[in-house]
Amino acid sequence: MPEFDVVIRGGTVVDGARNPRVVTDVGIKGGKIAKIGKLSPSDGQKTLDANGLVVAPGFVDLHTHYDAQINWDPYCTLSGWHGVTSLVLGNCGFGFAPCQPELRDRAMLSMSRVEAIPFESMKAGMKWDWVTFPDWLNFLERTPKGLNVLSYVPLAPIMIWVMGLEAAKSRPATASERQEMQRLLNEAMDAGACGFSCQRLGNGFISVQRDYDGTPMVTDTMSEEDLLAFAEVLGQRKEGFIQLTQASADFKDDMRLYEKLASVSGRPVLFNATAVRDDRPSLHRRTMRYIDDANKRGHQIFNQTATRRQGFIFSFEDWNLFDGSDLWREVTMGTPAERMQKFKNPALRQALVSEYDAGHTPVVTGSIKDFTIESVSDPQFQKYVGKTVEQAAQMDNKHPMDLMLDLAIADNLKTEFETPARNVNEEYAAELMSSEYSIPGVSDGGAHTKFVTLGAYPTDMITWMVRDAGFMSLEEAHYRLSALPARCAGFQDRGVLSEGAPADVVVYDLNSLKMTPEKPLVIHDFPAGEWRRVQYAEGYRWIMVNGEVTFEDGQCTNALPGRLLRHGRG
User: Fold this and answer.
1) Is 20 a residue whose pLDDT tops 90?
2) Alpha-carbon torsion 193, 95, 134, 504, what sign?
3) Which of 8, 123, 285, 463 is deepest in the core (most CB within 10 A)?
4) 32 in helix, strand or coil?
5) Residue 388 in contact with residue 400, Cβ under 8 Å?
């Protein structure tokens, strides 16, 4: 009788631990890697011929928002299509547990703007058979899954549960409230959470991710004392890690807070997030210097980096990522009909023109003049497609802001604009990934689904940095994509190919690996008939989770071997 359930034969094994690649076999039994070495085809009940292919650990994604989507999509796509075999939910302090039943609609409304998840899809697709955070983990455990999940404790739901929504947004916690929030975090950690997450962006121009009514999110304005109280819990427990998005006009003060969190908790802290700006390389270099220096002083701070080469594609029907501007937030609130009326308002238009002329550039996208007109609904406007807003404005002898607003109005807000791609400079990207503390990703999987396809980042990274540009080795890429994030987040025995480890494996053809189509495709596959943008993957011969094939040549096998990894184990 064969010794192994599966034998992967003759592949180039890149183990994720930075060891040199080797052509050999991998034997899998009982969902684990039982042997790496020379094997016979007869040793396996099933043999996968990996000759000429790369065999590597499945990818680990630390930054997702699949908290809603996992209710209806067990593979958490795009991530599941692009080799991700383990991921973390509940980022940025946002999530759905704990949540009183009467506040469920309000929680979904928040996520419909701050993470741009369609409300009607959540309303139709979420099961809502949990109330507390331990209930949420029990739900995740019994939910069929095509990959492994961990979950942060997002801080906003805990603050709302204890303080009430309005109080949580407007004042620090009292001593008794703080004690109760610490108790809830302990309860969540006892149940198997991996740590906590928080977005703290204040109420200024940097606060680009807002609540559905335009106000800051609960955690944006939370006090430093309240945040450190949560860190004390992890310090007392000596477990867990922290994901923090902290930004203000004072970068040094922001980094002081990261260091203080690391000091109080004694746990790893993820700095969220660093992307390369071709026009301002000083920004990523400054962040890298601070993080490298903090680690030299004994603080565990990791740099979560946005490596995907992509801009946003959007229309003004639902765009929300100008929320850092009070003016733009005003005109992009409400229904499409309400937005249309605001775009026509002479006073608001003049104010937008004045803001543009003053050089105010949206934080997330860069200058509006460089946006490309991607598509139009009405054929009479086809002449603008492929032109930048500035070029189109010159064609019509208009101010760029007037051109953009006039076109959006005339095209019934259906004109699609594409922002310039970031992270495209190879020299700067190589700099960013040269730090020992840089973790690639920030897929935002499950969020902003109508604007970006960041979940394809593993495929983009391997094809670009390793194969095409050649400034990163396969060994280094797989360490960054799997072992490093797994170690930071407390995944037990995952992220590497080693004997005894769970068999989360990707087998792919490096030469044919790619995202397809080249431009994101619109598909209507969300509940309530909602749509999203997707890019599929080609070149992954097999994706395996806990020893079972979930995708073969891009086709789903319908296997559901994923697990909830309480405390990173399972």
Assistant:
1) yes
2) negative
3) 8
4) strand
5) no
For residues 196 and 141, is the Cβ–Cβ distance under 8 A?
no
Helix (H) or strand (E) holding 353: helix 346-357
For the chain, what is the radius of gyration of the CA atoms?
24
**8 A C-beta contact, residue 244 and residue 270:** yes
Count of residues in the chain: 570
What residues form DSSP beta bridges with 373?
417
User: Domains plus CATH for the chain?
Assistant: 59-311+422-495 (3.20.20.140), 313-418 (no CATH)
What is the C-alpha separation between 247 and 258, in angstroms, rounded? 11
Question: pLDDT for 45-54, tens place per residue?
Answer: 999 999 999 9
* 537 in Cβ contact with 453 (< 8 Å): no
The residue behind tokens 């995202």 is 515
What's the predicted TM-score (pTM) here? Answer: 0.97
- Rounded to whole angstroms, the Cα distance separating 300 from 418 reads 37
Q: What is the pLDDT of residues 369-403, one digit of tens each?
A: 999 999 999 999 999 999 999 999 999 999 999 99
Q: Which residues are within 8 A (CB) of 280 and not within 5 positions of it... i.e. 6 or more apart?
A: none
The verdict on whether omega for the bond into residue 517 sits within 30 degrees of 0, i.e. cis, is yes
Q: In angstroms, rounded to a whole number, what is the distance separating the alpha carbons of residues 314 and 330?
A: 18
